[in-house]
Amino acid sequence: MFDVIIVGLGCAGYTAAVYTARYKLKTLLVGAEEGGMGLTAAEVGNWPGIIDIKGPDLMENFKKHALSFGDIVTYEVVKIEKIEKISGGFRLTYQNGKTAEGKTIIFATGSEKRHLGIAGEVEFSGKGVTYCATCDAFFYRNKTVAVIGGGDSAVEGAAIAAQVAKTVYLVHRRSEFRAEPYWVDRVKARPNVVFVLERTPLEVLGKEKVTGLKLSAPFNGSDTLTLDGVFIEIGSNPSVKLPLELGCALDERGFLKVDDTMRTNVPGVYGAGDVTSASNHFAQFTTAAGEATVAANSVFTYLATK
Q1: Which of 28, 35, 76, 119 has a CB 3.0–4.6 Å from the CB of 95, allowing a cystine?
Q2: Domain residue extents for the chain
Q3: Which residue of the set 3, 52, 57, 132 is catalytic?
Q4: Domain spanning 129-232: CATH superfamily
Q5: CA 152 to CA 177: how far, in whole Å?
Q6: Percent of the chain surpassing pLDDT 90
């Protein structure tokens, strides 16, 4: 039995593993996708000590650091349950049916991209509809695309897409952006970015692939944008399916509820990173790493009292 099972292979998961290993805790680090949402960050300019680094490169550094202390299991976890015996603990089941057991759990499961829920979105997913402009912009060189959203991921995505695309329409339902001013300024400096504000998308149009986007109100005389691709960047939802199976409480916004020690309401279960209610819901590499550090220390303290 492991002392701690860390579920999630992003910034929080890797950081927690580094700390639990240094505490000499027998650690299992497991997840379906190495790097998590960190892979979608094209440029990271706010990680202390590194002025500029790409998200995938930063995650690779995290992974190498974690691997220096132990192995990483890249399987999807489909079930976690309490072990009903005197020793207590938890049993997780992988997608392939194999299992592992641990005395404690740290959920660093991150978040999942939100969907618009409009006509054509599902039909053309992978056929011009994508949820990561940073990842897929390269495939739209000299083409016309739309980025939907007004937060950091959307505005950053528009700036990245503008480096290769012929034209980028930035579609936002409001007149102002929630994004960091740095990225807003970067986008405004791009001559091939067209702002389509105070309009919402109603339908993704296409035949065998995306051909356009229908809007809630006309823009330049038409309620349809002619496009080759649509990048949907409207934020994400916390990945709480596994914590819910264990009876972990959520806050009013649907995030894993934790206290200042990163402890959930279930004894032996902790959280860290984008999935939690901590750090004022401010999803950053720095906050994820900080929460993971606290969670690892809390696990060490908890096990020391057992």
Answers
A1: 76
A2: 2-112+236-304, 129-232
A3: 132
A4: FAD/NAD(P)-binding domain (3.50.50.60)
A5: 9
A6: 81
> Of the candidates 269, 268, 245, 243, which has an alpha carbon nearest to the alpha carbon of residue 255?
243
**Mean pLDDT within 86-113:** 91
Listed residue (174, 221, 214, 172) closest to 193, CA to CA? 172
How does pLDDT run across 195-204, given as a tens digit for each residue?
A: 999 999 999 9
Q: Which one of the listed residues 11, 52, 71, 135 is annotated catalytic?
A: 135
Residue type (1 letter), 155? V
Residue type, 8: G
Query: Is 185 assigned a catalytic role?
Result: no
Q: Catalytic site residue 228?
A: no
Catalytic residue among 3, 136, 228, 274: 136
Active-site residue, 248 included? no
CATH superfamily of 2-112+236-304: FAD/NAD(P)-binding domain (3.50.50.60)
